[in-house]
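Co-fold these.
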Amino acid sequence: MNPKFFLLPEEKQRRILNAGYRVFSQSPYRKSPVSEIAEYAGISKALLFHYFKNKKELYLYLWDTCAKTTVREMEQSGAYEQKDLFGSMDSGMQAKLRLMRQYPDMGSFAVRAFYEKDPEVSLDIQSSMNQYLAVHARRKLQEINPDDFIPGIDLEMMYQEMYWASEGCLWEYIKRGDYDADGMEKDFRKLVDFWKKVYLRKPGEDGSHDKENV
Amino acid sequence: MNPKFFLLPEEKQRRILNAGYRVFSQSPYRKSPVSEIAEYAGISKALLFHYFKNKKELYLYLWDTCAKTTVREMEQSGAYEQKDLFGSMDSGMQAKLRLMRQYPDMGSFAVRAFYEKDPEVSLDIQSSMNQYLAVHARRKLQEINPDDFIPGIDLEMMYQEMYWASEGCLWEYIKRGDYDADGMEKDFRKLVDFWKKVYLRKPGEDGSHDKENV
DNA sequence: GATTTGATTGACCGAAGCGGTTAACGGAGG
DNA sequence: CCTCCGTTAACCGCTTCGGTCAATCAAATC
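Predicted complex below.
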């Protein structure tokens, strides 16, 4: 690709990225025309082909940038270091929302690209994905303290359930093309509050040792 | 449309429906070629145009059939009459799974069609949808008995949360193109069991009047 | 003011794909 | 042998595709 792309004003770069995410997230690779991307970005198709030598290079650049941006944002959020489970979920969601505010269609693009079947790009996607997965640390449910939660609860299931609910909540917006990050945040906050009330052990309940009961 | 379509063996009709759901669920209306549908269905494009006079008619027929089939299946499931909240959720999910076994892509098709923007079909979709919504009864959370659940819980939020979690669980399969209805059912069952343990009031807890404590 | 330079684009190319039609095929029934 | 009818390959005119290129234009340089 043409290195002059990086000399463009940041806002113009982002406009091009977002146009690409948008178009590629709505149709499979083969049915996503470059001309449509150029139109969304507000530039001519010829200029887009001036920065990227062909459609495939543009697509793979989008994929790579999307992965890198996500990893960076997640690491900066501190979601991985946090001890508190709810705090870590909150940090993760904050990062997700920050991404969505800058790149509304990046998430949908990532899902679609990950499951893309077109032989022209699928191999490159998969191999670069494996690379990222190798670096990316696995989740770490084992570090939480079971005594914090109501007795007898299946923690694995609880975590799974919380994950599904937050995904379902987000999808509610995404599937109708609504990018209201503030609305999502509000809904998510309500979810977390609800979880805390339901899952966390109430002080003074039949724990083996309740030292704090002021 | 050609009434001879209905004289076709049922399995062939279903193959055509499924081919249509599949293709139209993966790209927007305009980018979903009829030829591809014919290929999936295992017939020639000419024959498809023999049954449906054009692409639009085929699309709207799919939409209409999808709506009718869903409504029928939901009504038969008894999900609307059930008093027990979990029982009603279970019936609903059973119906959903039965549909998915027969028409794997119908759900994705319905979502995509509902949000379709193409002026050639969007008006017809919207107006027929309003028709269905007028008939379809609204949810009825008010009928459940708050005393069955742990005290102080926000029932509205609980219902919302359960809905999101089940949607998120399903989406986990759908987004990766996996139609394993058995797997979905197993996951969903585990969800319901988890909910029952967490949300239902344990006998002997501090209710205002615990008459049953044998 | 003339000239160079580099970003940007309208117009274009051959190829492919689109929705839709038609003439012909082929097998079953009379 | 002919007739019917479900079925299709081949075709049509048109649009759209990925990609190219010569021309445009404004700013920098002389």
